């Protein structure tokens, strides 16, 4: 009977193994989509912080280069002297003499109260602004691990449904395995009809010319591309020369 295990290398990339610590290919696509949704928020925060810094720079320039200080000094002295001893002279000294004044004025003022007093954001404030976005991005990276528990939770509460799902997955893998072998045979047949490229011909010539270079110029599996190991098996047809790993063979 056709067995499914162990899975082929191309088949393992389409499944999620719960105990595998690294992020796998099906999870990577969903994780990248979640991270892309954070980009508009990041651009918005960068625009707001850049606009804040730009306005702060303009107000700082106005504050430092628009300061004007005024200093006003004036002196006023009025003295009316009426000469004579007559009655009219005495009357004029009593009336006009009251106009005699003397005062000095000194005024200093500036437009400091009208100038803006900007205060820029500190490094801690910038950090507090971007900290929620960084937390959101971190959750996008870590959410793949709690999502792996969804199947186990569903299997615990719905065991019959889980049995149906496993049977469906088994039949689906059988169909994919049959189609996979058919497609790979066709791909290898088309590849065999094509003449070898210049690079491949040069590698084969170097391997035949200098046997010690076989360790450096190792061939790869025709299907999955894994480097050559002692377990790799060549095609029994002497005119083929294709190499396969143990799993693909």
Notable characteristics:
single chain; 249 residues; mainly alpha; two-stranded antiparallel sheet; two-stranded antiparallel ribbon; 8 helices; ligase; CSR-E3_Ligase_Protein; membrane; DCST1_C
The strand count comes to 4
Shape: elongated
Indicate the proportion of strand residues.
5-15%
Low-pLDDT segments, ≥5 res:
none
Biggest sheet, strands in spatial order?
Answer: 1-2
Describe the main β-sheet briefly. 2 strands, antiparallel
Task: Give a written overview of the molecule.
- With 249 residues, the protein is mainly alpha-helical.
- Among the domains are: 15-72 and 107-157; 159-193.
- It is 54% helix and 10% strand.
- The strands form two sheets. A two-stranded antiparallel ribbon has the order 1-2.
- Strand 3 (233-234) and strand 4 form a beta hairpin.
- It is elongated.
- The protein starts with 8 loop residues before the first helix and ends in a 5-residue tail after the last strand.
- One of its GO terms (molecular function) is ligase activity.
- Residues 2-170 form the Dendritic cell-specific transmembrane protein-like domain.
- InterPro entries: CSR-E3_Ligase_Protein, DC_STAMP-like, DCST1_C.
- One of its GO terms (cellular component) is membrane.
Entry summary:
The chain is mainly alpha-helical and 249 residues long. It has helices spanning 9-12, 25-65, 87-95, 123-142, 144-147, 149-157, 159-193, 198-209; strands spanning 69-78, 101-110, 233-234, 243-244. α6 (149-157) packs across α7.
């Amino acid at each position: 009977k056709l067995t499914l295990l162990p899975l082929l290398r191309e088949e393992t990339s389409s499944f999620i193994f719960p105990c595998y610590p690294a992020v796998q290919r099906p999870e990577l696509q969903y994780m990248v989509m979640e991270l892309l949704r954070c980009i508009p928020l990041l651009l918005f925060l960068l625009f707001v912080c850049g606009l804040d810094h730009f306005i702060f720079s303009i107000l700082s320039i106005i504050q430092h280069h628009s300061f004007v200080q005024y200093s006003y000094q004036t002196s006023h002295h009025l003295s009316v002297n009426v000469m004579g001893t007559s009655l009219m002279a005495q009357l004029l000294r009593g009336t006009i003499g009251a106009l005699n004044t003397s005062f000095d004025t000194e005024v200093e003022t500036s437009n400091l109260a009208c100038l803006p007093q900007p205060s820029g954001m500190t490094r801690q404030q910038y950090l507090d602004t971007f900290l929620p976005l960084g937390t959101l991005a971190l959750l996008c990276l870590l959410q793949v691990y709690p999502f792996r528990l969804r199947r186990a939770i569903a299997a615990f509460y719905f065991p019959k449904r889980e049995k149906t799902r496993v049977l469906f997955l088994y039949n689906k893998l059988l169909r994919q395995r049959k189609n996979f072998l058919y497609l790979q045979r066709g791909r290898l047949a088309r590849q065999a009809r094509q003449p070898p490229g210049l690079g491949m011909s040069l590698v084969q010539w170097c391997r035949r010319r200098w046997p010690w270079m076989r360790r450096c110029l190792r061939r790869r599996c025709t299907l999955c591309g894994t480097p050559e190991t002692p377990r790799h098996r060549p095609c029994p047809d002497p005119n083929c020369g294709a190499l396969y790993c143990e799993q693909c063979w």
